[in-house]
Amino acid sequence: MLRNICGTAYRSIFYQRKAYANSSAVLVGKLGFAHSTQPAVDSQGIETNRMSQVANGQTGLLPPPKGLVAPINVPQKLLMGPGPTNVSPRVQQASGLQLIGHMHAETFQIMDEIKAGMQYAFQTKNQWTLVISGPGHLGMEAVLVNLLEPGDKVLIGVNGLWGKRAVDLANRLGASPLALEQEAGKSLSLDEIEQGLSKHKPKVLFLVHSESSTGVMQPLVGVGDLCRKYDCLLVVDTVASLGGVPFFMDDWKIDAVYTGSQKVIGAPPGLAPISFGPRAVEAIKSRKSPVKSYLLNMNELTIQWQCGDPSIPRIYHHTPPVNLFYALREALAELTEEGLENVWKRHAEASARLHAGIRSLGLKLFVQNESDRLPTVTTILVPEGIDWKKVIQYLMEKHKIEIAGGLGPTVGKVFRIGVLGCNATPEKVDRVLQALKEGLEFAKLQGHL
């Protein structure tokens, strides 16, 4: 069939050239130009030669990639970094189910079930609770691009990489970001937050609940009341914490929140659950300028998710990753079946076990204040004289276990170990501690060679 197709293509090219040659000859004869110095075209010979080249694979067509000839091979690894985490067999199986259309009734039912699951995980009754097609980072962009207009003041808590990233995004949107800075390894106090609100009178306060680059968890109780006092919207990043620690969106008066699918929730990466409260919805609907993103425009995306009046028919907005919806739905089903309080308890116990094991190895935690420590992602000071890269490499090559180094302000200073989702178990914690012990001994030995 390829030969026939290519032969047809080349015959078409040949006849186009022949017609052009004939018309040129007529033009030359009429105008009296000299005959062309180009050699005569043996059209039959060219076509025969081209077909021969096609048959012998000599047409300049790129060869098939050799790496794609064999089936895909994905090794088994234990992901004990800050995310993504391993997924359960149930979630993994769901992601491979038969693809159906994104506007099918069955898909809409799955989306509705995801919405209910996320309302449970966020502990909110917000109608505008949905999922964005993209990583957790896109959740950050979504809240900022919908809530901020050019010139709007946004006060951003900065004690790690993700606060700095929010400042960058706000600048790109033409807003006026104001950094409320704290040193890496510490959270912001209520007094510091109130001073910032009182001084700057921002439209939005942005806080990172789970600063995974430093291992800090920002306390949120009382912040919502301060934001009401200063007529400010409260936005919270929970990418590395939601599901692993207590979180109450409505009770804490949080106006917008987002997370990632690949952390505690235990689904593959690629989805960003998000929720907007009534005050945030009103701010979006009353904007003076259009939302500067089509994909992230909540005025339209919420219709596809049917977040408002159920009598309004769903409209096509974009084609989402349906198979990831399957996986997220099942991950939320497991979360619901275990119960939030039980999941919180399991992660707290796993974190405590990890911290005790770290101390038994003679290591020190990076976050000094115990109440500031993020249970789901632990930061450990790299011992003096140890090449942290060699430790991480040893764990991967010897045990197929992933842990991470520092990120942003902690690069070269810490190891980061995550206990997320189905990996928050005593057995997994013990495995990573034993491997870490070996890795440190290996790195220490390498340092003496």
Automatic annotation (TrEMBL):
Signal peptide: none annotated. Pfam families: Aminotran_5. Residues 100-432 form the Aminotransferase class V domain. Keywords: Pyridoxal phosphate. The keyword Ribonucleoprotein does not apply. InterPro entries: Aminotrans_V_dom, Aminotrans_V_PyrdxlP_BS, PyrdxlP-dep_Trfase, PyrdxlP-dep_Trfase_major, PyrdxlP-dep_Trfase_small. Its cofactor is pyridoxal 5'-phosphate. SUPFAM superfamilies: PLP-dependent transferases (SSF53383). The keyword Mitochondrion does not apply. PROSITE patterns: AA_TRANSFER_CLASS_5 (PS00595). Coiled coil: none annotated. Belongs to the class-V pyridoxal-phosphate-dependent aminotransferase family. PANTHER family: ALANINE--GLYOXYLATE AMINOTRANSFERASE, AMINOTRANSFERASE CLASS V. This is Aminotransferase class V domain-containing protein. The lineage of its organism: Eukaryota, Metazoa, Ecdysozoa, Arthropoda, Hexapoda.
